Amino acid sequence: MKLEQLRGYVLEEVLCYLLKSSGYDLLARSDVDNVELFWLGNGLNVRGRGTDHQADVLGQLAWTPAFSRPLRLFVEAKFRGSPIGAEEVREAVGILADLNTRYSGWGQGPLVRRHSYRYAVFSASGFTTPAAQYAIAHEISLVDLRDGAFAHLLAAVRDNVPIINNAMPDGRTGAKPTVVLRTVLRAMLHTDGGQAPVQMGDLLGRIIENLPNDARQGAEPRAVDGLISASRNLVDAVTTQQPILVGMPQAPFFLAMRPSRLEDFMTHVARVGDHPVHMDAELSADQVAMRLWPVGSHAYELRFSLPSELARYVLDSTDETARLRSVKREALAHITTTAVQGGQLRPVRLLYQPQPRSRSVLEGTWR
Q: How many domains does the chain have?
């Protein structure tokens, strides 16, 4: 398997782990929804209106925005040396169109369970202009991981994937190697819905048990054990990372926000609930890296990158400051995210408030 392809698969599983703090629950088995989901040899699949779709990484948000159906989010990650083009985005648009129009009412009745499917593409190398334009027109979220907040995460994946690749099963026994790999990583990162295993034997047994029947029959415990050992350094590096908080702005995309310390964010939210925030930005050749923090306090910081099309809207202007101010006041005026309180997720609104003009000539930029 090509290393860049394997890096993408591994990065997807890592991102699922980091998204857990926002109530993103990975759908690792089809028995949680026998209506829309089913399992084949290639993994989880979703029934569409015209055809079925493989869902390597599909999760459901534990909280549902007002006036919406429960949200399910596809996560796709690319770890290449060049920007991601429009073709990958075009494929995502087609999948969503088929899934979100599946309900016809004919023979299903008004009480049938329905979900709203969304799609996010994460890239370690950015996106082309056509990809960014196409994505924002069709409400596909593009997340650029070149922001420095993700540097250690990408390094961990880059450094450990060659080791994992050397331990990958060859697939000749009937178990698809990528299915085995995802099952191993999900058990080790505890994104498979099970309890954290205590001993190595428990972990190996759970992985074998979680494999689909055809893969379970062909999986060799020794090969799976080797893959566990090869993945340990990666898992150790990932589990020390700060999580990703899903931010829902007043715009057709979501923000992948990294807290300086999750505990500080949760403590502040528990004390004040919804609250006003300041924002500033760091501008580079093709990126706008944002930072926000609570008004009157530096209790925490959240960092995220603007989607590529919005970044170009700012950077292609002769007045970057005015464009940036417009983005903050219109697209980022209210950002809804989540915090755990009393063991339950609750929505939290972060309300943008401009800084006093005297603070900065550029009103909200740092360089």
A: 2
CA distance 85 to 80: 11
- In Å, what is the CA distance from 32 to each residue of 28, 323, 326? 9, 45, 43
Q: What is the CATH number of the domain that holds 74?
A: 3.40.1350.10
In angstroms, rounded to a whole number, what is the distance separating the alpha carbons of residues 47 and 210?
Answer: 22
227-265: pLDDT as tens digits: 999 999 999 999 999 999 999 998 888 999 999 999 999
pTM: 0.89
Q: How far apart are CA 155 and CA 136, in angstroms?
A: 29
Q: Are residues 206 and 124 in the same domain?
A: yes
Short-list 310, 302, 263, CA closest to 286: 310
230, 290: one domain:
no
* Contact call for residues 259 and 300 (beta carbons, < 8 A): yes
**Domain span at residue 234?**
3-238
Of the residues 209, 238, 267, the one at which a domain ends: 238
Give whole-number Cα distances, 280 to 10, 124, 131, 241, 248, in Å: 32, 23, 26, 23, 18
